[in-house]
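Chain A, query sequence.
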Amino acid sequence: MHRRPPSRPARVLASALAVGTLLTCAACSGESKDDGGGGRGDSAADVAASPLAAESTVASPRGGKSAGVLTPSGAKAALITEADIEDNWTQVKDAASWGDKLLIGKVDVAALLTAKTNAADCQKLLDALYDDTLLGKPSGASALTGFEQNESRLLYQVAAYDRAELGTSLNWLKTLPVKCDQFTATDSKGGHRTVQVIEDPVPSVGDARQGLQVTVTGTSGTQPVTLTLQLAVVRVGTDAITVTSGGLRGTETDTTKAAVQQGTANLKDVLAGRTPAAQPGNLD
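Chain A, predicted structure.
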């Protein structure tokens, strides 16, 4: 049984076949979380905190008059739906309980390829991936939803953040492909996992954006496994959307791109007082 922080909405993605061994059940922690959908406006969706990553040149949030304040109902309205990402994604109600034990580990400082002083940042990255705190704790409204397709998962979140902390978090994420390009993490049984972090492109939307791809190679039982996560965050004013997709069979680049583009448009509409346009649905 593993530690669960008191506030940790969305969980990271893992293979559906490996759920029993790789995912930590939320019930083990004794926590109670609200499950949610991803419909627009009055649909039920988890309202919670969480974050995730990505951009090439990160600017601090701008000052000046805000286009609008993100409210709890607005955060729900800004969530994406199955129609926004197409293919065969199915919306789930347990996204808040997702967690992957491959992300639990202590950075091996001696084996760190880059400067040893970067160990703290690499440890923070691992912990934040598991706890979903890459952008820090939201300062206002937030909502999340999740989707599954075969052995892949996608988590989408939208939240309001403190102006200064959001800029600091984005700039920190930008440094990780250099500070934590490759390192080793050790689990509680002494097993070793290799973690690699590279920059990943994000569509040019919003006020700032940052993308990362994180690969964790380890074992599940006696079998070697590789968890690949594609992370993207887009800032709109002092609010941000975050997308995490992937699993044990790789990433879903096209889906991540669609989620980022439609999610940013949804958030802009909400902040402007408009209702996000409904998508036509999947077309075969």
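The radius of gyration is 18 Å. The CA atoms of residues 111 and 184 lie 6 Å apart.
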